[in-house]
Amino acid sequence: MSYKTMGRFFIVAILSTHAFFLWKVRDRILRADPDFTSFYSAGKIVRDGRGPELYDFHTQQKTQAEFSSNGDIRKGPLAYIHPPFEALLFVPLTFLSYPAAFAVWACLNFVILFVVCRFLRDDISLLRAFPVWQIVVLCLAFFPVLANFHQGQDAILLLLIVVLAFRSIESRKDFAGGCWLGLGIFKYHLVLPLALILVIWKGRRLLIGFAASVTATILVSLVVVGWRTAIRYPVFVWQVVSEPKFGGLPFHRMPNLLGLIAGWPLTVRIGWPIQVVVIAASLALMTMVMRLRPETATREGLRLCFSCAVVVAVLVGYCTNTYDLCLFILPLALYADYWVTRPRSDLRPSALSIFPVVVICLSPVWFFLWMKWDRINLMAFFLLWWFFAVRNDLVALKFKAESTRSVAVT
Asked: Which one has a higher pLDDT value, 274 or 141?
């Protein structure tokens, strides 16, 4: 049996596992268990003209009680904590019943994923050998994509925005890249560190574009909820994400630095000193990736650097969830293209570089860490490993370029 045939069987097996899982949890979906509940209820609140009450626990709980029958596993509301402007996106869906709205949102996510794959196929030479539908199938076999569809999340929408920002930056349209990235501010815990890195690399034009886009979303948000609610918004969000009783995600379920360092019984008891360690480690990672600015001068270097930036943004994000790793579809494609399209003379076996990528892509590993150990935070170790592998490749590229220049001068 050829490797291609084995690969096809493996992908089919993974997709079948994902489909079986979604089928098994269909009752929970119909009972409004997924995160989509918070989006749907936010859309209903705004549609009813109650925007100033958007971040009121009682209002959210009362609204969700109108369509949710999930009281046996959730005593309070599934809090909506995204910025007000995003709630407008879900207003049209509230004219449908919850199950129908969830199905429509899933279809929209599939269309967005198809568009993303079309863009990737156009930009990445490795993918041009495959029809778009096969690339979509590969993406559907990626566990974070399953998590996004399971929860009815918006991570695939953010993936599209980041892909559009990358395409603009690669085409030297930094202002447009900043504008696109600003539209992703509904997941500010990921977009802000990514934007900071890119501003350090690309400078004022990207910053102006980002600021203009974010300003527009702020103005829209003020129209939706008013300035009093907007002022209370940060306190509401911090209350939700920092306390499990309000829906905060436990550290051991976060595939980021916070989860890797603080997601253990011993470290939870230590308290604030662990948070200081997390902040120091995050600053160190951000500094390392910012110092890659000279390597962004070449097309190949920019692609590897952008991959590093996305990985670091996910690692330092405060409340990173599994579905947020949908963003890795872009760096995974860029990194695969880098290795496959290298000249034969440059290729060298590098199990240390490939291993973390393989682990990240294997759904059985995710299922094991999630259902068996309840230790998704361990995935952050492989993300760190991957970051340093890509960084080493950048160092090798720089060394090769310097050697070539030295030979030319001689």
From this structure: 141
